[in-house]
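User: Please predict the structure of the protein below. I'd like the answer in structure-token form so I can feed it into my own downstream comparison script.

Assistant: Understood. Taking the following sequence of 636 residues as input:
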Amino acid sequence: MTRRAVGELYDTAFNAAVLDRRLASIWSTPPGLWGALSTVDHKIIGRRYITTAFVFLALGGLLSLLMRLQLAQPEARFIGPDRYNQIFTMHGTNMMFLFAVPVMQAMAIYLVPLMVGTRNIAFPRLNAFSYWIYLAGGLLLWVAFVLDTGPDIGWFAYVPLSGPQYAAGKRADIWAQMITFTEVSALAVAVEIVVTVFKQRAPGMSLDRIPLFVWSMLVTSFLVILAMPAIMVASTALILDRLVGTHFFNPAEGGDVLLWQHLFWFFGHPEVYIVFLPAVGMVSTIVATFTRRPVFGYLGMVMALIATAVLSFGLWVHHMFVAGLPRLGESFFTASSMAIAVPAGVQIFCWLATMWAGRPIFKTPFLFVIGFVVIFVIGGLTGVMVASVPFDTQVHDTYFVVAHFHYVLVGGAVFPLLGAIYYWFPKLTGRMMSEPLGRWVFGLIFAGFNLTFFPMHILGLRGMPRRIYTYQPEMPWSGLNIFISLSAIILAIGFLLFFIDAIRSAKSGPVASGNPWGATTLEWATSSPPPPYNFARLPVVGSLKPLTDHPGALPVASGLRVDRRELLVSSVVQALPEAREPSSEDSIWPLWAALATTATLIWSIFTPWAVVWGSIPIAVALIGWFWPKGVPEDES
């Protein structure tokens, strides 16, 4: 090969316009159905994840309205007990497993590679596989519900009520297998995020220059990797008890029903922080942008993220204070449950200090942050209350707990998420959402949420239990219940306006500039929406706010090839360039692997032999996936 031909393999040989064309031809997804099914572009997959998760949010919201309609009056007959149990179970399962965790990971799939300055996520084919598995698990759950075989055991599936003795049919099996789908998907994304953050950061982006959103997703990913195997073990043991005749949870044969609760809540309480910690990163990003100053106490914020993750593994027994555990153990978990408020308090005060010292601009994303602070503080205070064994014993399984965890989960995750959607919508679509309508959305959701869920504290103190489908007229609950049900309509209208605004703006909203908010992080250093290759030449980072330090043009690194998809691999601590790594081409094999896995998992609900015979098509798909393909030699 001539010296000229060798030179044309690298980005240094081209001017900006020619380089863009070369990279677009290499990185672009082919048009048509085949390209859509085989793409491994993290931006396309991230948008699919986000859209799918919000569809599940809308479906879960409709289920909650049905429950509120049933509970608005005593002795209502709108929904029967069997269907109500399905709706109740579907709502919790849908919101926790199909919306809350996936939507946070979806934002990371789209944003983290852009924020660390790389061209694609690590293991892009695994990323595509994770989406197809997630979609299959969601479809399994909802198709079962439509066919009146939806799970009816609660989103927590406590044994023995979910075991073979009390839950006949396939409803509990569908729930258990759906867990496998969603957890495989979540674990795959977590591994991708960890590797992307550690090994694909732009040159110069040392650990002390990583954006706080990236830090939050890195810590969250480790939480997923460490916590979610527990629920996979639990759901697998449950389905083995039901289908194979094992006795993990059967006391008559040496099993233990409390084993389920320990396994489930060992996952279940870290899951709260799997949802909350990404929101911390979103809030930090929005606060920094709209106060025009870096978040106060960067190191303290990072340490608070890590401390929250560590402490979250010492809380699970506070869900079991009435299970008859030793008092000394309960004291330990009470202390842990109260101690985790300390890093949360550090984060709140860092944001308040940033707002105090900055010049706040009250746009819609920032309004959702303010709403988050108010609601999450209330949820945190009630969390400290239920961490006390005497108080928790009184309000356990009442609507006080329902109010508490909705304040924590909706206030701590959904409000920041909605603010993040308004903030990053230009990056996702190239268009702006409506600012006047956004203010209406915030006002309706904030008012509707508080009017709906704050009275539930009072219902709980009056003794209304959770998980009931009706109640007697003489109970002192009917007035508050009808008020709550009417307030839920206000909340629903707010979300309806949000969906209308998002859909309309994606099609015909005002065209966004490259950096409409004046932000300082790398995702705004490229066009909106970004090109298929993200960055023509990778940026070089010298501080936490690279766009402020270099308002004209960032310094760039060169030396990547333009005849194949290639990524820069950097060192973990200092992000020093170490190697050039080929990135996977588009492939249909992740879809085939997901289809084969889906067929095997669903088939296994009916016969254990499915695991044997289903392994054959899975193996074929994996062979196709990993079949070696010739890569041009590095002739430098």
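That's the full token string. The longest strand covers residues 577-582.
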